[in-house]
């Protein structure tokens, strides 16, 4: 690997950019190492790894509030608004969950698997921080779910977008469904790596996700389902 020798027992973030054009091939050769350190500083490292149970602990109360607000039971909004009836809320929620599955696919394929420059140390380190770390160290259970701080940074623009384009209650329910889809995605992702599914669907999904990690990183971009791999024609051959 050229002249630079990377030390996987030391902080990775300051090192990976030095791999240059060799980074993309390196990051898609999964390591059996079960943990690694991202940052030198303990404060940053604390926020770089997340326990799986943090996701429901943080996001389910958010989901509950958004659902309650959209149906008019409890809201921080002081101005009057037209709340949604339960059947309408359920329909919007289902639409938002479907929206999340598409967003999950698009983010994974067109952001997480894109290296903007193979010669820029900044963009290499950015990719490793965003997603490359997970492909290089797929057995590190602290890197399988999205840190809440980063999650809120991603969620906020969608919250603003929904409220800028939709009636208040509809926007709240769209955000609730997006959060529900995200929570399902993150917990499913963790289970696919560390669970031992025996049911047909989840067992097949685990096999499909392993195919993405270990054989075909350019295919199989769905996590919670294969839904969008079909129309986009990115279903791995062994998962077809």
How are the SSEs ordered, and which strands pair?
Layout: H1 13-16, H2 23-27, H3 42-48, H4 54-70, H5 86-112, H6 121-136, H7 148-165, H8 168-194, H9 200-214
Helix pairs in contact: 4-8, 5-8, 7-8
Could you explain the architecture of this structure?
The chain has 240 residues and is an all-alpha fold. Helices cover 57% and strands 0% of the residues. The chain contains 9 helices and no strands. It has helices spanning 13-16, 23-27, 42-48, 54-70, 86-112, 121-136, 148-165, 168-194, 200-214. The longest helix is centred in the middle third of the chain and has 27 residues, at 86-112. The two termini are 35 Å apart. The model has no long low-confidence stretch (mean pLDDT 95).
What brief labels describe this structure?
240 residues, mainly alpha, 9 helices, single chain
What is the residue-averaged pLDDT? 95
Question: How much of the sequence is in beta strands?
Answer: under 5%
Order of helices and strands: HHHHHHHHH
Helix content: 55-70%
- Tell me, briefly, the overall form: globular
Alpha-carbon distance between the termini? 35 Å
Q: Could you give a short account of the major beta sheet?
A: none
CA-based gyration radius: 20 Å
- How many alpha or pi helices? 9
What structural class is derived from the secondary structure elements? mainly alpha
Tell how many strands the DSSP assignment holds.
0
* Low-confidence blocks of residues: none
């Amino acid at each position: 690997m050229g002249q630079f020798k990377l030390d996987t027992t030391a902080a990775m973030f300051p090192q990976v950019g030095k791999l240059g054009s060799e980074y993309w091939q390196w990051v898609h050769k999964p390591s059996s190492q079960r943990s690694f350190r991202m940052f030198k500083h303990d404060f940053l490292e604390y926020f770089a790894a997340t326990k799986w149970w943090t996701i429901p602990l943080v996001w389910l109360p958010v989901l509950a509030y958004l659902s309650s607000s959209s149906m008019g039971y409890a809201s921080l909004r002081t101005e009057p608004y037209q709340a949604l009836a339960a059947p309408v809320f359920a329909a919007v929620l289902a639409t938002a969950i479907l929206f999340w599955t598409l967003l999950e696919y698009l983010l994974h394929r067109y952001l997480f698997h894109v290296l903007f420059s193979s010669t820029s140390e900044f963009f290499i380190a950015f990719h490793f921080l965003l997603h490359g770390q997970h492909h290089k160290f797929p057995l590190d259970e602290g890197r399988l779910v999205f840190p809440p701080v980063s999650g809120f940074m991603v969620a906020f623009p969608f919250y603003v977008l929904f409220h800028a384009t939709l009636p208040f209650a509809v926007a709240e329910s769209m955000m609730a469904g997006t959060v529900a889809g995200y929570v399902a995605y993150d917990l499913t992702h963790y289970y696919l790596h560390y669970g031992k599914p025996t049911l047909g669907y989840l067992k097949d999904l685990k096999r499909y996700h392993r195919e993405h990690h270990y054989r075909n990183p350019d295919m199989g971009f769905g996590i919670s389902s294969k839904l969008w791999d079909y129309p986009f024609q990115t279903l791995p051959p062994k998962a077809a």
